[in-house]
Amino acid sequence: MPQQIVPVPGLTVLEQVTYASWVGGCSSAEAARRASEATGQVAMDELAGRPATQLSGGQLRRLGVAEALARPGQMVLLDEPTAGLDPKQRARFRTLISELTVPCLLSTHQVDDASDMYEHVIVLHQGTVAYQGEMVDFLRRGAGPRPAESAFLSTIGDSR
To answer: Per the record, a Pfam family (predicted)?
Structure first.
C-alpha cells in the first residue's frame, strides 16, 4: 500500500479494488471475488457503491488496505499507513491491521503505532540495521510515557 491512496475518477470503491486486483494478475472473476472479500475485511461493504473520489482520508486508507488484500500475494506491505490520520482514525486503523489474517510488513515513522501492532521490529538508521528483534525487547530499551519513541531514539544514539 503506498503512502498516498489516489481515488480513480469514475470508479466506485468496489470497482477500484477490483481493478487493483486485476492489475495485480487476477482474472476478472477472481478479481471481483477478491475485491468483494477485501472490502468486507476492511468494513467498507456499505461504501462499495460510493465513488472512490468521495472518500475521507481514513476511508482512503481503508481502500488502500483493501486494494493490497485483493492483490495476489502472501504478505501485505504498508508504507506509512497512519500518516495524515487523526488519533481516532489511527486507532481504528490499528484495529483493522491487527485483525488481518495475512502477515504485514510496515514502514513507518510513527513508532508508537508500530509498538501496538507488531511482534517484530527492524530499525534502519543511515542505511544500516540498528536493531532487529522482538518488539517487547525493543520497548525495554525505552522509558517514560512514550517507550517506543524513547527506544527508537536510544537505538539510533539520539539522547534528546
So the answer is: ABC_tran
Cross-strand bridge partners of residue 18: none
* Residue span of the structural domain in which 125 resides: 111-159
Tell me what the mean pLDDT of segment 77-90 comes to: 78
Q: Give dist(CA 116, CA 90) in Å, integer.
A: 11
Measured at the CA of 27, the angle between CA 22 and CA 28, to 5 degrees, comes to 75
What is residue 53's predicted lDDT score, i.e. its pLDDT?
A: 97
Q: Cell triple for residue 112?
A: 508508537
pLDDT digits (tens, 9 = 90+) for 11-49: 999 999 999 999 999 999 999 999 999 999 888 999 999
Which stretches of the chain are assigned E, i.e. beta strand? Answer: 76-79, 104-107, 120-125, 128-134
Q: What share of the chain has pLDDT > 90, as a percent? A: 46
The tally of domains found in the chain comes to: 2
- What's the whole-model pTM score? 0.72
Query: Same domain for 65 and 119?
Result: no
The grid coordinates of residue 2 equal 503506498
